[in-house]
Write a structure and sequence with these properties.
single chain; 6-stranded mixed β-sheet; alpha+beta; 8-stranded mixed β-sheet; 2 domains
């Protein structure tokens, strides 16, 4: 086991070194390209092709590091968490249900727990360690979940009352009269938990194999597909039978921003950054966010947009994008962490292809407690289907904490 861990760490360290070597080559080649443009108003095609290859290598190496991070977040369920008698009983009953369809043990456990969710609500709860494992992996794969405020609920939705104007305040002496404050504007926000499902299939031979850890198998099968589905919804979901993504809200120029809208800064050029000093619009975006939110702010982009930004320099010739400084860290842009979300749109006319903000305060992910499994040995013989569901919601909870970059004239 230790040998495998050492080999994994060595491979991750090698990928980390490859990333820094690739970025050094990228900077050297891009400087050469910029020099050619300055001297001849155009870059040599060989240099452009070389830069493209290095840029592709940077993305591939970063993907390798991301896979190592995902693997390191996958501890084996068996023995990883100390369980009490109730959890061991649940694990045993769950194993019998998954392997043989025997639901008596799970029914008894849910009756003792006064659960009303079995049967008609879509199956039986997976054991708590398996649910924790699924959520841990989803946080690793789902980029917005990893940076958002995650709230667990036991009901159908999360309701919050927020102030849109803030209470009146001021300074007074000890004996001075306190003037009546202005009416505070309160808005109610509701974040319903929607049903997310997956249906992995197994052969009875696999289920009969005592060596197979059924909880681990379920976690392996559903965690990534759940994360991919919710990751797309957290970015651009329309809120109909799914969470509402932060790009689905009404957007408005930052100069006319108001509560209920997401403010944006325009690049001034359709489908592109400005030709001159392109990084200036990124600084405008950063400072569109209030100082209190900037302390925990992050950029959210996909790989293609990030590749375009890698070429940008400050007025003193320093690159504004930097690779991770240590193993397990994130790349930075203007010293803020960069979160790669492939569900963000590519650069295009009027596309909102880059977000910046404090997502922990700006976006809430709502998890209804419990992952459920319903065994179906009939619909796809000789395979056994496992209809697995989880209820997830999400939406913007602070409209001033997230800003967008719009690739348009205005």
């Amino acid at each position: 086991m230790h040998d495998l861990e050492n080999k994994s760490y060595a491979s991750e360290a090698a990928a980390f070194e490859d990333l820094h070597r690739a970025f050094a080559a990228f900077r050297e080649t891009n400087d050469e390209r910029l020099g050619q443009i300055e001297r001849r108003l155009t870059a040599d095609i060989v240099t452009e092709e070389k830069l493209t290859r290095i840029d592709r290598a940077l993305d591939e190496t970063k993907s390798r590091l991301d896979r190592f991070a995902l693997e390191s977040a996958r501890p084996r369920l068996g023995g990883a968490i100390k369980t009490d008698h109730v959890e061991r009983e649940h694990k045993t009953a769950f194993g019998l249900y998954m392997r043989a369809g025997e639901a008596g043990g799970l029914k008894a456990i849910e009756q003792k727990a006064m659960s009303r969710g079995s049967g008609p609500d879509g199956g039986y709860l997976v054991p708590v360690p398996a649910e924790r494992e699924i959520l841990r992996r989803m946080s690793t794969v789902s980029p917005i979940r990893a940076i958002a405020n995650v709230v667990e609920i036991s009901g159908a939705s999360l309701k919050r009352a927020i102030s849109t104007t803030g209470p009146a305040a001021g300074w007074v002496a000890e004996t001075d009269p306190r003037p009546q404050s202005a009416n505070q504007q309160i808005a109610d926000l509701t974040f319903p938990a929607m049903e997310l499902y997956a249906m992995p299939a197994a052969t009875q031979t696999l289920l009969d194999d005592a060596v197979v850890d059924i909880e681990q198998w379920i976690a392996d099968e559903v965690a990534v597909v759940f994360a991919e589905q919710e990751g797309a919804a957290f970015v651009s979901g329309d809120g109909v039978n799914k969470p509402k993504g932060f790009l689905a809200y009404t957007t408005t120029p930052q100069a006319t921003w108001s509560h209920g809208n997401i403010g944006y800064v325009a690049t001034g050029v359709s489908a592109n950054f400005p030709a001159s000093n392109p990084s200036d619009v990124l600084y405008d975006l950063v400072y569109a966010l209030k100082a209190g939110f900037r302390q925990n702010a992050r950029f959210v982009v996909n790989r293609k947009t990030q590749a375009a930004i890698r070429k940008f320099k400050t007025s003193t010739g320093e690159y504004i994008w930097e690779p991770p400084a240590t193993l397990g860290a994130q790349a930075t842009l203007m010293n803020f962490p960069v979160v790669e979300a492939e569900d963000m749109p590519d650069i295009a006319a009027n596309a909102l292809a880059l977000a910046f903000g404090d997502f922990e305060r700006g976006y809430v992910v709502v998890d209804r407690v419990g992952v459920r499994v319903l065994r179906d040995p009939y619909s796809a013989k000789p395979y056994v289907l496992f209809y697995t569901t989880k209820r997830v919601g999400g939406g913007v909870q602070n409209f001033d904490a997230i800003k967008l970059l719009k690739f348009g004239v205005s």
